[in-house]
Design goal:
The chain has about 250 residues and is α/β, with parallel strands linked by helices. The protein has a domain at about 5-35 and about 85-130 and about 170-245: TPP-binding domain (Rossmann fold, 3-Layer(aba) Sandwich), CATH 3.40.50.1220. About 40% of the residues lie in helices and about 15% in strands. A six-stranded parallel β-sheet has the order 3-2-1-6-7-8, sandwiched between helices. It has a two-stranded antiparallel ribbon with strand order 4-5. Strand 2, helix 8 and strand 3 form a beta-alpha-beta unit. Bound molecules: zinc ion.
Length: about 250
């Protein structure tokens, strides 16, 4: 069993040889960067005792349509009050993209962490809290407009309730986005999985598209499926990325 630094060196070599690396970023990255993660069990319990509904119920399309006031109370107070920190690990991803090593990132993060770090080719499967718009006229709204609006945020022009830029529970991911993301994975010679297990739904969605050489896993928790990876490094993925590039 090699130590942590040996594994970092090993990952460096993999990246050096790689011509087309694609990153899959799980939701754990969001919480590790300080964002609220309603899928996290502890956060989820707090929310349920506060609102009387589970986060999954509140964050659903039907709840948004039927109880918009409660939806937006939750959304403003518990989802977008904390947008997380752009950590050195995220900046390391940007550096790798700039060097032409990391070709794209496919993520379930809704806080645009990779984009905010400067990464350009990011597939945000569940959208972003930064991309809000009016479903009627299509006008776009910055996040601070939503944050500062008293009550249910409405379009300045037509008065229609704004739609947050994220997919709600029970909504399908945009098919063309999925197809484009899958094409990226098909081209990859290295797949870098960060912040989720190889059994997560994110990996499940794309693993069949991957025909490359190296499957690398960076995750803080062990899982029985880890041995399928060519290289596993345990720890917070963004801490690992920082150690890799420094
Ligand atoms: Zn409008």
């Amino acid at each position: 069993m090699e130590g942590y630094m040996e594994r970092i060196q090993w990952l460096k070599k993999i990246i050096e040889k790689s011509q087309y690396m694609v990153g899959l970023m799980g939701v754990k990255i969001s919480s590790q960067c300080g964002c609220t993660n309603y899928r996290d069990e502890e956060d989820s319990y707090d929310i349920e005792s506060k609102y009387g509904y589970s986060p999954d119920e509140i964050f659903s399309a039907s709840f948004y349509n039927v109880r918009p006031a409660q939806f937006y109370e939750f959304y403003k107070r518990d989802m977008i009050s904390n947008l997380g920190e752009i950590s050195p690990g995220l900046m390391a991803l940007q550096k790798l993209e700039e060097q032409g090593k990391l070709k794209s990132i496919i993520t379930r993060d809704i806080f645009s962490l990779a984009r905010r770090a400067g990464c350009k080719n990011v597939y945000e499967l569940h959208g972003s809290v930064f991309d809000n718009r009016c479903p009627h006229c299509g006008r776009k709204y910055q996040i601070d407009y939503i944050q500062n609006f008293r009550g249910v945020p409405k379009c300045e022009k037509c008065g229609v309730m704004l739609r947050p830029g994220v997919s709600l529970v029970g909504e399908m991911v945009d098919n063309s986005l999925l197809t484009r993301a899958a094409t990226e994975v098909q081209k990859a010679d290295t797949l870098l999985v960060m912040g989720c297990s190889l059994k997560s739904s994110l990996v499940n969605t794309f693993i069949h598209d991957f025909n490359g050489e190296k499957l690398v896993l960076l995750n803080s928790e062990e899982h029985f499926a880890d041995k399928k990876a060519d290289l596993v490094i345990y720890g917070k993925p963004m801490d690992i990325m920082k150690d890799l590039v420094v």
